[in-house]
Amino acid sequence: MSRPRSLKPKRNVAARVLETARGAFAAVEGAPQLEEKGTALLVPGFTGSKEDFLDLMEPLTAAGYRVVAVDGRGQHESPGPRDETAYAQAELAADLLAQTDTVAAGSGGRPLHVLGHSFGGHVVRAAALSLPAGAPLPYTSLTLMSSGPAAISEQQQVRTQLLIDHLPTMDMETAWQAMRAMDAQVAEDGTAAQPADPDWLEEFLHRRWVTTVPEQLIATARQLMTESDRVAELAALPVPTLVLSGEVDYAWPVPWLDEMAVRLGARRVVIKGAEHSPNAERPAQTAAALIDFWTDAERRGGNSLTGE
After folding, report:
1. Which residue ranges run through the membrane (predicted)?
2. What's this model's pTM, rounded to 2 decimal places?
3. In this structure, are strands 112-117 and 38-43 parallel, antiparallel, or unpaired?
C-alpha cells in the first residue's frame, strides 16, 4: 500500500464530494497554481485511496494542472454496499466513466489525463475498453502506474489468497492486526521487513483499512488474481499511453512492465529509487515524468505517442 509522506493539507488542496450519475465519491482536488493547462484524474489501487496522491499535488498543480484524486466505491471515504457483485470490474469501470464526465464538465474543454495506480490501472483500462466501438475517448492521455498486463505475480497471489480466505470470517480490525503482524515479520527471501510507520501514518492506514468495505477488498483481490491480458485491446485505442513504475515491483515484476510498454507502443519511465508506489516514494521525479508526458500528449493533440 502507498504511504503518503504527509497528510497536512496544502492551501490549494481541498476535500470535496464528486457528484456523478452513479452516486457520490469522496475526492481531494488540487487547484492549479498557474494558468490552468489541463486536468488529471487519479485512480488509486488495491487497499489504497485518494490520499495516495497527496504528495503529487504540489508539483502537478504548480505546473498548471487541476488534479482530482478519488476514492472508488466502498473505498475509504466513499460509500459502497456489502455485496461483492457491486465491485465487479464492469461496475468500477462504469463508476470511473461517470467520474470522468463530472470532472470533464468542470475542465472548460481543456485536456483531461487519467492515471491508474496498480489495480486502478486495470480499472482505467477496463473503462477505456468499455466504450462503444468508434466512440471518442474522453482522455488526452492514459497512464498505467505500477500496473501490469494481467494477474499479479504468483508470490503476491499467495498473500492475496490469504485475505480472500480469512476476511469473510473476521472483522476488519482483526484482519488489520493479522496483516500488520505479517508485515512485521522478515520476508521469506531474507529481506528486511517494512520499517515501522510513524504514529500519524499508522493511524491513517488503520483508519483507511477499517473504513473500506470488506466486500470491496475481497472482490478486487479476486480480480487481481484472475485479470486477463488485455494489452492488445488497449494498444488498439488511439490514446497516448505511459507505463511508469519504480525499479522494483512485487506485484508485477519490472520485466513484465517493460514488455507491456513495448506491446502498447507506450512511453516507458522507470523512477529510480522507487518501488510499487513512486507517487509516494519519489513524488518529485514522478510528477516531472507525468508533466513531460502530458505536455507531449497535449502538443500532439492526443495522437499516438511512443518513445522516451
Report:
1. none
2. 0.93
3. parallel
Q: Using CA atoms, how far apart are residues 162 and 175, in angstroms rounded to an integer?
A: 10
Q: What residue segments make up the domains of the chain, in order of their start?
A: 13-299
Contact between 88 and 115 under an 8 Å Cβ cutoff? The reply is no
DSSP state, residue 193: P
Residue 259, amino acid: E
Query: Which three three-digit cell numbers place residue 165?
Result: 480466505
Asked whether the beta carbons of 271 and 209 are under 8 A apart, the reply is no
pLDDT tens digits in sequence order for the chain, 308 residues long: 788 888 887 889 999 999 999 999 999 999 999 899 999 999 999 999 999 999 999 999 999 999 999 999 999 999 999 999 999 999 999 999 999 999 999 999 999 999 999 999 999 999 999 999 889 999 999 999 999 999 999 999 998 998 899 899 899 999 888 877 776 653 444 444 556 789 999 999 999 999 999 999 999 999 999 999 999 999 999 999 999 999 999 999 999 999 999 999 999 999 999 999 999 999 999 999 999 999 999 998 744 333 33
In the block, cell 476476511 appears at 167
Long-range contacts of 223-226 (CB under 8 A, 24+ apart): 223/89, 223/119, 223/122, 224/46, 224/119, 224/122, 224/151, 224/152, 224/156, 224/157, 224/160, 224/251, 225/151, 225/152, 225/157, 225/160, 225/161, 225/164, 226/151
Q: Which CATH code fits 13-299?
A: 3.40.50.1820
Which is nearest to 272 in space by CA: 243, 245, 254, 290? Answer: 245
- What distance in Å separates the CA atoms of residue 31 and residue 15, rounded to the nearest whole number? 11
Closest CA to 48 of 19, 30, 26, 20: 26
Q: Among 161, 79, 87, which Cα is nearest to 126's? A: 87
Task: Determine how many CB atoms are found less than 10 A away from the CB of residue 169.
Answer: 8
